[in-house]
Write a structure and sequence with these properties.
By secondary structure, the protein is mainly α. The chain is 68% helix and 0% strand. It has two domains: 4-187, no CATH class; 222-312, Orthogonal Bundle (N-utilizing Substance Protein B Homolog, Chain A). It contains 15 helices and no strands. It starts with a helix and ends in a 13-residue tail after the last helix. 30% of the residues are buried.
Amino acid sequence: MFNRRQLRIKVLQALYALHSDKEGSVEDAHKLLMSAVEKTYDLYLTLLLLIAEMQDAAIERIEAGRMRKQPSHEDLHPNTKFVNNKPLRVVIKSKVLAKEAANRSLGWSNDQDMVKRLFKSLVASEEYVAYMENEERGFQHDRESLNRMFRKHIINDESLQEWLEEQSILWSDDLDLASSIVLKTIKTISEDSDDLTLCDMWKEEGDDKEFLEQLFSRTLALSSEHDKAIEEAASNWDIERIATIDLLLLRMALAEARSFESVPLKVTINEYIDLAKFYSTEKSGAFVNGVLDKLFASMREDGSIVKTGRGLIE
């Protein structure tokens, strides 16, 4: 489910929390790290459940129209294209999704106002209107349209984004990732599908989880040693004058370079430059680049950094 960049961000967040909480322990930070991973998966499932809720809201709207004292022709003969969307029905009837949601205590039962507001907004959107007015029928059309409505409207709704951030401060960073996995999940639905194929949190070979755990532990284990090297390479800046995020990223980059022989140094340095630009100050990218250039060169000379296989790629 996760790519390496996203795992680096998770580690950075856990290290920052540990650095900020003077009374916090490494064990607490590790629990936070693993909890953050679980919360990302929760978000993925929550968004799938939200798609299912859209159909319930549509059915409720149709029933409310029929129950009016003076129903219109449209009320009595509603357009049921959305509620009969075949991939959507697979999501709704999914036993694996229901089981996973129950195990994690996830659902929208306590947030029906948000569901109704979001569905009302969806009904007024260009994507929904175009889908309902299009006379085309067919599985592929339904699947592409459902993906389009989710991608262009639902996840871009400001009130939904605010609600998600209220549920977890980490979810605002995770929304793009979780949304992309939702889209991939919908794309896996075929005409023969009896149930959803949910994305696994970790790949079977376990490399990603090992990368996450080892990057976290090695960054902490080597931090004292690396701080001395960073201070020397940073034109003798006092370590306390370096921006916290910059320092954490430098520690992580050095730990990664020394701990993962198959990861090319070019990949490592580029990743941490990008993270510095995004999460720290305007000049942080250049600062991190300069320090890592010096340290990587000296560490390769003294044998502190050894690369094998794919890690030898320049």
